[in-house]
Design brief:
elongated, 25% strand, 21 strands, 5-stranded antiparallel β-sheet
Length: 382
C-alpha cells in the first residue's frame, strides 16, 4: 500500500470504545504516526454498552438490501473476521456453527425462498434441508422448511475487543476510559483540526471519528451544532435475553423467519462458545438509552415464540440473563434504515466522520467499517 508521508504529522480521536470504535482506532493507527490515535470512552472499561450486550453472532449477510452499507460491510466484515480469528485463534475464539432459519407454514416458507434467492445472487451459501437431515441433525427442532446458512457463526466479542485494543496499543495508541466528551470545537480556521474537550481539558486532533453508539447523535450535534442534519436522530430498541439453565437442545443457531420491516430478527435460540443456549432478543422501543434491566415479565411471550420451533423446551428452566439496546435510525413502525457513515466535509467539517445507527450487523461489520472510514479519509495503511 502507498504511504502518505503527510499522515505522519496527523492525529485522531475516536469517540467510543465499543467494538466499532476500537476497530476504527486500530485501523487508523496503521496509517498514522505512533501514539497519535486516542480512544475516548466514558465508561470505566471498553465495550460496556451495545458491544457486550448482543448475540455475538457472525452474520452471513442474508437480510439487508443488496446495495446497502449494512450488506456491503457485513459481507466484507464476515470474511475479515474469520480471517483475523483464524490467524490468531488463541486470541479470539470463533466458531462457524451455522444457522437454521425455520418456517412453520407456506407463507414463511415463501420468505425463505426469497432469502435463498437473494443469498445466491450475493454468493452467500444457503441450502434447504430435507426432512431426514433436519431430524438427524436437530431432532428437537420443529419446522416445515429449514434454510441453512453455513457461514453464520459465533465469536467472543470481548476477546475481539481486547485484541483490537492490543493492536492499537502496539502502535502506542491510547484508550482513555472514564473520559467524557463535553464539547468539540472546530475546525480551526488558523491551524485546522479540532479541540475535543473532555473533563481533563482539550485534546487537539486532525480527525474526529464519532463511534458513540447509543450517544452518537448527541456527539454529532456537539461537533456540528446547527449544521447537524435533522435526521441524525437515534431511536432505542431494547432486546432481552434469557438463559436456558439446562442442557442445550440444539447445537447451532435457530432463527425464525425475520419480522416484517427488520424491526428484529425474531426471538432466536443461540448458543455460546461453551454450548449454552439463550433465547432473545425481543424488540421493544423505549425512550431510555441506558435501561437494560431484565425481569421475568417478558419471558412468557418469548417462550411462546420459541416453542413454535422448539416445542420441548422447559419454560421453568429459563432465567433472566441480560438486555441490550439497539441504536436505530428508524422509529417504531418505520422502515429500517441503513448505517450512516459520513465524512462531513460537505457540511464544512473536514476530518469529522460520524457513524450512526450501528446496530446489527455492527459486530460482524466492524473491521469492514474501519476500512470504510479509512477510505473516506484517504488514509492508506503503512
Amino acid at each position: 500500500a502507498r504511504i502518505n508521508c503527510d499522515n505522519m504529522n496527523r492525529s485522531c480521536a475516536v469517540i467510543g470504545g465499543g467494538v466499532v470504535g476500537l476497530a476504527v482506532a486500530a485501523r487508523l493507527a496503521r496509517s498514522l504516526a505512533l501514539g497519535s490515535v486516542y480512544v475516548l470512552e466514558r465508561h470505566g472499561h471498553i465495550g460496556e454498552e451495545t458491544s457486550s450486550r448482543n448475540s455475538e453472532v457472525v452474520h452471513a449477510g442474508l437480510y439487508y438490501p443488496p446495495e446497502s452499507l449494512k450488506m456491503k460491510t457485513c459481507l466484507e466484515g464476515k470474511q475479515l473476521l474469520y480471517e483475523t480469528c483464524n490467524r490468531w485463534p488463541s486470541a479470539i475464539p470463533i466458531r462457524r456453527c451455522s444457522k437454521w432459519i425455520v418456517a412453520q407454514d407456506d407463507d414463511e416458507a415463501q420468505v425463505l425462498q426469497e432469502i435463498h434467492a437473494k443469498a445466491s445472487l450475493l454468493g452467500v451459501p444457503t441450502r434447504f434441508l430435507s426432512a431426514e437431515e433436519q431430524h438427524r441433525q436437530e431432532p428437537h427442532v420443529h419446522a416445515s422448511t429449514v434454510l441453512e446458512s453455513s457461514s453464520t457463526g459465533i465469536v467472543d466479542s470481548h476477546a475481539l475487543m481486547l485484541f483490537l485494543m492490543a493492536q492499537l496499543e502496539e502502535r502506542e495508541g491510547v484508550v482513555a476510559c472514564h473520559t467524557t466528551v463535553e464539547n468539540i470545537e472546530g475546525p480551526s480556521h488558523e491551524h485546522g483540526g479540532y479541540d475535543v474537550v473532555t473533563q481533563d481539558g482539550p485534546l487537539h486532533v486532525d480527525y474526529v471519528i464519532n463511534c458513540g453508539g447509543l450517544w452518537a447523535d448527541n456527539i454529532a450535534k456537539l461537533a456540528m451544532g446547527t449544521r447537524c442534519p435533522s435526521d441524525y436522530q437515534l431511536y432505542f430498541c431494547k432486546g432481552v435475553y434469557y438463559a436456558y439453565q439446562a442442557a442445550s437442545p440444539v447445537s447451532r443457531l435457530i432463527y425464525p423467519v425475520p419480522l416484517p420491516g427488520l424491526k428484529g430478527l425474531g426471538v432466536h435460540a443461540t448458543i455460546d462458545l461453551a454450548g449454552r443456549m439463550k433465547i432473545g432478543p425481543d424488540a421493544e422501543y423505549q425512550e431510555s438509552r441506558t435501561d437494560t434491566q431484565v425481569d421475568g415479565a417478558r419471558l412468557p411471550g418469548m417462550v411462546a415464540a420459541v416453542k413454535r420451533y422448539l416445542p420441548g423446551v422447559d419454560e421453568t428452566r429459563f432465567a433472566p440473563d441480560y438486555a441490550g439496546i439497539r441504536p436505530k435510525m428508524s422509529a417504531d413502525g418505520e422502515p429500517a434504515r441503513d448505517f450512516v457513515v459520513e465524512h462531513e466535509v460537505a457540511q464544512g467539517f473536514p476530518g469529522l466522520v460520524n457513524l450512526l445507527g450501528i446496530e446489527s450487523p455492527g459486530l460482524t461489520a466492524s473491521l469492514a467499517l474501519a476500512n470504510h472510514v479509512a477510505g473516506l479519509l484517504d488514509l492508506a495503511e503503512q
